[in-house]
Amino acid sequence: MIVALYRFLFSRLFFLLLLFSLCRLLFFLFYSNQFESCTNAQIAQAFLVGVRFDVSILLGFNVVFLLPLAIGRFFNIPKSIFFLTKILFVLVNSFLVALNLIDLEYFAFTGKRTGIEIIGIKDDVANQINQLILNYWHIGLLAFVLFLWILLRTLRLKYTPIISKKPIIYFTLGYVVFIGLSIIGIRSGFQLKPLRPNVAFSVEPSKLGNVVLNTPFNIFMTIGIEPIEEVHFFNSSEEVSSILNEWNTQTKSTLTPQTKKQNIVIIILESFGSEYWGINSPNKGFTPFLDSLAKTNLYFPNNFANGRASMEAVPSILASIPSLMQEPYITSLYQTNTMNGLGTILLKNGYHTSFFHAAKNGSMGFDAFTKNADFTHYYGLNEYTGSKEDYDGNWGIYDEPYLQYANNTISSFQQPFASCVFTISSHQPYSIPKKYSNKFPKGDLPVHETIGYVDYALKKFFEAARKEAWYDNTLFIITADHTHMHSVDADQSIRADYKVPLLFFHPKQKLQADTSLVSNHIDIMPSILDYLQIINPNPALLGQSVFGKQMGHDYAVNFANNTYGIFLKEYYIQASIGKEFIIKNYKDEFIRTANEKEKLFVEAIIQYYNNGMIHNTYFDWTKTK
Fold first, then answer.
1. Where in the chain is the domain with CATH 3.40.720.10?
2. Helix, strand, coil % (nearest 5) of the chain?
3. DSSP letters along 27-94, please?
4. Which residue from 49, 361, 366 is spatially nearest to 210, judged by alpha carbons?
5. pLDDT over threshold 90, residue 621
6. In a designed cystine with 316, which of 365, 425, 515, 521 is the match (CB 3.0 to 4.6 A)?
7. Taking a C-beta distance cutoff of 8 angstroms, is the pair 413, 347 a contact?
């Protein structure tokens, strides 16, 4: 009986997978010109990986419907229930197939698979139903043909229970096992996080991620995620560009031309507010090594994170995408948008790209995002080759051994390379190896002792890196993802909630910039490209190179509780859509109402960000309607 049960269940699933694969093939053929540079092997891999997404959504919708159909094949149940289930099976799966066909045409407008945000245009669809039918009748006809195929295949199922002497317990156990397998299939494995849309873009090249995805999966995985609203403060995208470009005015570069391609190493420190450093602080601090680097290199005391979470920091640093919406970009409706980040640009210029994170693979979605951002090699806990004793028992590998592992791995790369290393030890529960117990100052916060440990781990990293051939040919950028707890005697202003370190260090070059100016995470990517003298053909309109910032044109952006904050040198602009924009000092005291120039600047930021995300034109703003 169990063999017959599984034969029946999996035959239904394979039929649906065939339909979804056909939809994938049609999508590929419709947009084949976009994938001309892909090899046959890469395309085949995209189709194969796509089955993983198909299985997830199909099992999610069908595991319940298959039960009555299976019972009707083995036991006497009312024929009406068997027939009703067949009809529901047809309707549900026809609906899923119809959703899958949407992007045969709609993809041309958005450049990405459709998500739940399509609900926002339901009124437009209703108002334009006549012209939609006229122009896209072939999609409707195709959906009807596939509906008939599903209907005929399902109606063929006969209500002919197999006479079995086996007790019902066999059937029950068999179906329970199937439910268990289905749950694994819906999650798509035993990994830390269930399957997400941005995982599709882990294939090479990442643009094939749109072939991997299916539209129903993308829609239902984005249900419940808050969309952002399209705004029209200005009549044209040119007006927005003009305002933002004026604020981004740069001085002529004084950087020395590079005679040899330089490597890039970005180090992101977990929960590492500027107040923990001793430099420019009334406190002694907990970072003697980092302080020594800061005193002789480019350290920006007025640098700010663009968000308050790790998931918000990585897109800001690696792609100049600040967190200006409620949902982090990595898990937002726009996570599958076209990416033109640092990895994308450097790959095209012959760089090896990699991302290191000492935590469990899948943590915070970094593995999927960084692959989408063209950091093609990911090194997480799964890839770590050191001792099991290096595991902290919570998040991943302690920083000291992991940074040594990162150094050894980086040393195996062909130059030039760009690597980003994200530490973890200063994350709650703030554990350090037992051998360092009582070695570092404990301070007045639980995090302080681990800050000292991370500083020590970085010192050991640089001591090891200094012996490598690539070291003298490398620009190091050190920053933090976000701030954390504040000491009682620390700055308690709104600045302190976002103030994180930013340090540029090159072993053999004396870098120059005005470090008194305001900077933020989104400045890191344009600064690196400016330093490397690589032109970005499609730069974001937010973020500036620190090597060319002008006084009066420096700013930082953030968003919290539906309120935008634009940090300037002496004050900040507080803005909410539908409310008056105001100017406050950093003690959060009202100064005045924003003037016209300040108001237009904020409105340009909002329109650029919101509409750029919605229309997938953040990196190609000229195409925005």
1. 260-546
2. 50, 10, 40
3. HHHHTGGGGTTS-HHHHHHHHHHHHHHHHHHHHHHHTTTHHHHHHHHHS---HHHHHHHHHHHHHHHH
4. 49
5. yes
6. 521
7. no
Highest mean pLDDT among 65-79, 145-159, 215-229, 423-437: 423-437
State the burial class of residue 11 (Cβ atoms within 10 Å of its Cβ: 0-12, 13-18, 19+).
exposed
From its phi and psi, is residue 261 left (phi > 0), alpha (psi between -120 and 50) or beta? beta
**Nearest 10 degrees: Cα torsion 559, 562, 565, 571:** -150
b/e sequence 70-109, b meaning 16+ C-beta within 10 Å: bbbbbeeeeeeebeebbeebbebbbebbbbbbbbbebbee
Instruction: Assign domain 260-546 one CATH number from 3.10.450.50, 3.40.718.10, 3.40.50.300, 3.40.720.10.
Output: 3.40.720.10
For the chain, give the mean pLDDT: 88
Q: For residue 72, what pLDDT is reported?
A: 57
Amino acid (one-letter) located at 49: V
Residue 452 Cα to chain centre, angstroms? 30
Which pLDDT score is estimated for 396? 92
Summarised one tens digit per residue, pLDDT across range 452-485 is 999 999 999 999 999 999 999 999 999 999 998 8
Q: Cα 555–556–560 angle (5° rounding)? A: 140
Q: Which residues contact 83 (CB under 8 A, 6 or more apart)?
A: 159
Cα torsion angle, 376, 382, 388, 394, sign: positive
pTM metric for this prediction: 0.78
Q: Is the peptide bond before 539 cis (omega within 30 degrees of 0)?
A: no
Q: With beta carbons less than 8 A apart as the criterion, state whether 564 and 575 touch.
A: yes
- With residue 166 as reference, give the H or E element that holds it: none
- Strands (E) in 174-311, as ranges, are 263-269, 298-299, 303-304
389-429 pLDDT per residue, tens: 999 988 899 999 999 999 999 999 999 999 999 999 998 88
H or E element that contains 399? helix 399-410
